[in-house]
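Quick one - inputs below.
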Amino acid sequence: MRIDSIMLVHADNLTKRYGAFTALDGCSLEVAQGEIFGLLGPNGAGKTTFLRTLLGFIRPTAGRATVAGFDCATESLRVREQTAYLPGEARLFRRMNGHGVLDFFADLRPTCSRGDATRIADRLGLDCSRQVARMSTGMRQKLALAVVLATDAKLVILDEPTANLDPTARAEVLDLVLEARAAGRTVIFSSHVLSEVEATCDRVVILRAGRLVHEQSIHDLRRSHRITARLAGPFAGVPESLAGRVSVAGHDGGRVVLEAAESLAPLLGWLATLPVEEMQVEPVGLGAVYDRFHRNGFSQLPK
Amino acid sequence: MLFNTAIWKRTWGDQRVLVLSLAALWAAFPWIYISLSAQIQMSAFQDVLLRAIPQEWQKLSGVPFAEVATHTGRVALAFIDPVVVLAATVWGITRGSDAVSGQLERGTMEMVLAAPVGRVAVFVTQALATTLAALVLAGVLLLGVATAIAFGPWAGQVDPVRFVPAAANVFGLMVCMAGITACVSAADSHRWRTIGILCGFYVFSILAKLVGRMSESLGWVGYLSVFNAYEPQRLVFGGVESWQLLARYDGVLLGLGLAAYVLGAVIFARRDLPAPL
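Output:
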């Protein structure tokens, strides 16, 4: 997939401190127009702080961010004209019914299509005649999604969009995200569900304690493999000629874990020379990358 | 743009029940009040009362007791009855606290401000809707008084037009309380706390006025109370003086309310918005 090189979102050293606590620490990143950009990290990593800083809900302590060339702190209204945002906890007006909510947000945002909102709500299986107060959490989430995805905003920011949704609705949401990209829109997708991020995103960044610790292309990730082998004899290490293609991720007695960033073909000859009793080859997966930064300490996946 | 139609419609939807409830209360109250008052023949024991009630206590009424004892004066006391004063205060605190902290606490502010609408537009539109509704309610109260006089036991004995300044003073109080509450709300994130602060302010104001009235040496304390500018019972005796006094009183109340709204708008425009819990 070809990603347009025009950058829609720029964040330069974005920092947010609350007294002694640093919620976002020198975060610098760019999001290209037309890509689906994933934001990963545990609770408290700074994902929502970053997104809310983009929208002007929070003023940065230092640094700057722009969306479509508009400064997020001083031109927030212009930024929000370009942006549709689904908060992590979308709260709607309890006394209104679904139709009332869709009408209200269509009035609030002239570029929001009331017809599209109804179609998306129907697609997600939502009964809009029900009052919001009588909707389940999942139904309210669907209603909020219908509000957000019915706009033609250049940038769509989705914070935990599939939270509280049933599997069918989750699949529909992911399809809607892919359709948004196909229509030329840019999506920032923040989620804890790694499989969904991996299935939809073009690039992801991982935040930890307010810092951006890793950036990963999903295309490159899909080419990466993990080789877990139990050896009958000693492991002599990776030969010099293959040092750039494969790295040792772990070595524990007779068990060795290797990671290859590119095609496996050049490695097969060398692997055949190892005293292997048992071998398993699998795609690396986003989970393994994520675990490096949040379970096993820091380690760089070969790029 | 300082005005948003969608926010305007929604604000009226939010305040509809309260407006209708207060309108019903203020339409009915003058009838009940006047019919009960008419059953007390003041002339029979007016002199006794005037001699028996200490001078210091008579200061609390704001006007000479001899005037309070007239039909006009007794109707004027309806405007300082708790049904009116408390309801006006409740209006101001309820609507003002919903301006920002109420919506932040409910979490709905996030979705609203995710749309391309300015924070000041949200704040100003809500303030305009609250103020217009206050005007309508003050009008309902005046209409209630006028019809209760015209069709009640004192028909022909009291001029309803004399109560226009009093109703305007009620309007001033409502705007003042709503503005001050909205200002506190703009800086706060919890509606319950905003309401608590304003309830404290209300009690302080009542006490400050009492102290200012009762004590010569502490008379200045009265100026710390917004209720020092709320004395509808002094505005009903006709003439230019009533209107001049109204201009002073409502000048203070509306001026305070407007200043508080402006400050609130500035605070809201600049603050960080907390994520919904």
